[in-house]
Amino acid sequence: MKRECILVTGANGQIGSVLTGYLRGIYGDDQVIATDIREPETAAGRFEKLDVTDAASLAQIVSKNKVTQVYHLAAILSARGEQEPMKTWQVNMGTYFNVLEAARERGVEKVFYPSSIAVFGAHISNEPGQWAYLEPATVYGISKAAGENWSDYYFKRYGLDIRSLRYPGIIGHQSMPGGGTTDYAVDIYHKAVKGEAFECFLNPDTTLPMIYISDAMDATIRLMEAAREDITVRTSYNLAGMSFSPAEITASIQKFIPDFTITYNPDFRQKIADSWPSHIDDSIARKDWSWRPSYTLDKMTEEMIRELRKKDL
Ligand code: NAD
Ligand code: AKB
C-alpha cells in the first residue's frame, strides 16, 4: 500500500473519535494524526493540538508530516451555530479555506469534507434528490452549502480531489454529539439504558434522516477509496441511512426496555428540524460507489442498548 499520512481535524468530536480509529485500522497508527482544538479525554495514538482557524499552524503540520489526505471535521453544528451565527460562519468557512489552501499549496492529494442534510431548506420535496435546490435555514447549513460549492470550485480549478457526503444525523454509542439538532437520538439511548425518562426537544412526529455510525463510517471509507473517475458529484453526495421520528425511536427502544418513557418539550431546535427534509434520495451515491446502508432502526437500537450497557454510564 502506498504510504499515506492522514490528518484529521476536529478529531475529538462525535465522528472524529470513531473515524480516527477506523483510519488507523486501515492505514496504521503512525500514519494518522488526530488534531483538535481541545485535548483528547484519553490518549490513543498521535495527537497534535491544532486550531484550524490558525492557517500557519495547519500549513506547518501539513508540510512537516508530508500529509497526503485531510479529513476536515472541525465545525460548529446546527443548534450551537444559531447561538453565535457570525462565529459559526467564521469558524466553519475560515477553517475550510485554510484546509483548501494548505492542500492546494502543499501537495495534499485528497480532502474529505463532511456536509449535512442542513444544506436543505425551503422549496424542496420531502425526499430531495441530488440536485435539489439549497436554501438552508441555519448559519450552519449556509456554511455547509458554501463549503460544497468551494469544494467543486477547487476540484475544477485546481484538480484537488475533494470528496464529500451530506451526512444525516449520526447515531453511535462510542461518543457524544456536539451541539446539533439530531443529538436527541443519541441522548435518548443513554437515558433509556440508565433507566431514566427522556425529555425530547422535538415533537413526537418530527421525522428526520439519520444514520448509524457503522454505516456512516462505511460510506466515508467507500467514498474515499472509490476510483477518482467514479466520483461524479464534486459538491457533496446525498446519503441516507434510515428516517424516523422521536415517537418511532421510542417505540423501538420500548421493544427492548418496555418501561422506558418520553415527554416532549420542543424548543428552538424544532424550527431547525422543521426546515430539514424527512427523507433523502441517495440513488447517485448508490450508483457511483455501491453505497447501501446495513442498519434498520431496530437493528441499531439493539446494538446501541447492548453496547451502552457494557459501559459504566
Ligand atoms: P462535534 O461537534 O462532535 O466535533 C467537532 C470537533 O471540532 C470538536 O471536537 C471541536 O473541539 C472541534 N473544533 C471546533 N472548532 C475547532 C477549531 N477551530 N479547530 C480545531 N478543532 C475545532 O461534531 P461531529 O458531530 O463530530 O461532526 C464532525 C463533522 O461532521 C462536522 O463538520 C459536522 O458538520 C459534520 N456532520 C456531523 C453530523 C452528525 O450528526 N454528527 C451530521 C452531518 C455533518
Ligand atoms: C446537526 O444536527 O447539526 C448535525 C447535522 C445533521 O448536521 N447532526
UniProtKB/TrEMBL annotation:
Domain NAD-dependent epimerase/dehydratase: 6-232
Classification via SUPFAM superfamilies: NAD(P)-binding Rossmann-fold domains
TM segment ranges: none
PANTHER family the record matches: L-THREONINE 3-DEHYDROGENASE, L-THREONINE 3-DEHYDROGENASE, MITOCHONDRIAL
Family: Belongs to the NAD(P)-dependent epimerase/dehydratase family.
Protein name listed in UniProt: NAD-dependent epimerase/dehydratase family protein
Organism: Dyadobacter sandarakinus
